[in-house]
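Morning F.,

Quick status update on the modeling queue. The single chain you submitted on Monday has been processed. Sequence for confirmation:
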Amino acid sequence: MGRLDGKVALVSGGARGIGAAIAERFLAEGAKVVAGDVLDEDGRQLAGTLGAGLRYVHLDVTKPADWDAAVAAAETDFGSLSILVNNAGIVTFGRIDEYPQEQWARIIDVNLTGVFNGIKAAAPALTRAGGGAIINVSSIAGLRGYEQLSGYTASKYGVRGLTKSAALDLGSSGIRVNSVHPGVIETPMTAGMTFDTGHVPLHRTGQPPEIAALAVYLAADESSFVTGAEFVIDGGETAGTVAPPAP
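Structure tokens below.
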């Protein structure tokens, strides 16, 4: 018996990385999944690999019409919608005084407005299902500042605040809303980047299945009294710094 038996999830940014890991783990726990992304080839490959329990749809999170279609796909193909995972996001770098206006607008549109669009589109379906769970993937950049990441940091702080307001608005409908704050996770988005983990207590980066395990808890009935909360999964990075391991 799975922890998500009978539930239906919609996962944005679901074609690869953390989103794909969440989709795979949700399926293993008994859920049906609609994975949405703009990476159509990767999404179709994922659907072919994971089987009939997963439906892939094209989803540009900046477009409300795409969200409406994704929610409709969940209700039409699987009968309802009980879980939303707002995972899609992008990252760009640059000093704040050199950061292009168009990059600022784009990262806020995807990382923050995209989450708003998802919540707004999914809330009526979650209410029709008798309640459910919304999981917003923020970052530890939503808890502290980072050099050269003004746009990303602002967007992820925004997701943190939006989560709390949505939890207050939707609690009476039986909808729980929580945010997840990963540290550095090895995904296609971070491929090619070099990270010093000497200051991190666990001295390593994280893996997508570790985020997926936390998402299962927040989606399952076992977290039924949890809403408006922040879940940090960063190997201890925001707890403080430790001396780097001896060579």
